[in-house]
Specification:
Blueprint (H helix, E strand, L loop, with lengths): L14 E3 L5 E3 L13 E5 L4 E5 L10 E11 L5 E7 L4 E4 L3 E3 L5 E3 L5 E5 L4 E4 L2 E4 L5 E5 L18 E5 L4 E5 L22 E5 L5 E2 L26 E2 L7 E5 L8 H4 L1 E5 L1
Antiparallel strand pairs: 1-2, 3-20, 4-5, 5-6, 6-7, 8-9, 10-13, 11-12, 14-15, 15-16, 16-19, 17-18
Length: 266
């Protein structure tokens, strides 16, 4: 899936007409390195799992880390695995992910795909404007029609996530500038020609951005009701619950654990 009306024509799942005139799909894209079926994503060396913030399913919901607590029986005798996040100590049912037929990373709850969105706000001091670093957040994104100019942060080909079992890292390939600030679009050298990976304990602050940050590319303001309203939430730099997409950079032995992820079945 992508954020366009012709998403079925993406690589790995190209639609075609058979001799009988019926629409068919080529074989699913299994070249992502992720497991088949549903799986959890855990930060290696910890008991923290990737989850939508406050288990929301709305667009713009940021993914963060939650602690796995214990296994209990519910009122019907079913086994329920409980999770909690340190800021609010909220217990929730586990969330799972999967790779769809087009090779896109998706959240099982709600079926939303995973996108990336970031910002570089402006600080004004003594008449000078300065940019300060804000992390690129993993967010939930549902199907939406294309808008112009295309591609843009609202409608674009989704980033490609691939997992390397040797380095246990999740790489991210952008097809559109993920920034939604006034500097958009930035030169391609700032996002297209660099290597990015998913990390825990990001160095930069990660924020839940509001619909206003992306509204200029959306079709109408009524779509705001589908956007998360937890726009006051944020994670400081190096937060143990934070997750972001950072430039890969040089190998640093002391920085390895932030980059490594492992999978568990559901």
């Amino acid at each position: 899936m992508n954020h366009t009306a012709d998403g079925a024509n993406s690589s790995g799942a190209q639609a075609a007409l058979t001799d009988s005139g019926c629409l068919s799909l080529s074989k699913p894209n299994f070249d992502t390195g992720f497991p088949r079926g549903y799986f959890r994503i855990r930060a290696k060396g910890s008991d923290q799992y990737l989850q939508p913030h406050f288990h929301e399913t709305k667009d713009g919901t940021v993914l963060s880390l939650y602690n796995k607590m214990d296994v209990t029986n519910d009122a019907f005798g079913r086994i329920t695995e409980c999770f909690t996040t340190r800021p609010c100590q909220m217990t929730i049912i586990s969330k799972a992910f999967f790779i769809n037929h087009q090779g896109h990373l998706c959240c099982k709850d709600g079926g939303a795909t995973i996108d990336v969105m970031g910002s570089s706000p402006i600080l004004t001091h003594l008449g000078f404007s300065l940019r300060y670093l804000v992390g690129n957040a993993l967010i939930l994104a549902h199907h939406r029609p294309p808008t112009l100019p295309w591609p843009n942060p609202w409608s674009h080909d989704l980033p490609q996530f691939t997992y390397c079992c040797y380095t246990e890292t999740i790489a991210v390939k952008f097809h559109c500038d993920p920034s939604v600030d006034i500097f958009w679009p930035r030169p391609e050298s700032e996002w297209k020609d660099k290597e990015f990976i998913v990390v825990s304990k990001p160095k930069a602050r990660v924020s839940v951005l509001g619909f206003a940050s992306i509204a200029r590319w959306a079709q109408c303001t009524t779509l705001a009701s589908r956007w998360t309203d937890r726009t006051q939430d944020w994670w400081s730099g190096n937060s143990p619950d934070g997750v972001a997409v950072e430039e890969r950079g040089d190998y640093d032995p002391e920085d390895v654990e932030r980059r490594e992820w492992v999978f568990e079945g559901t």
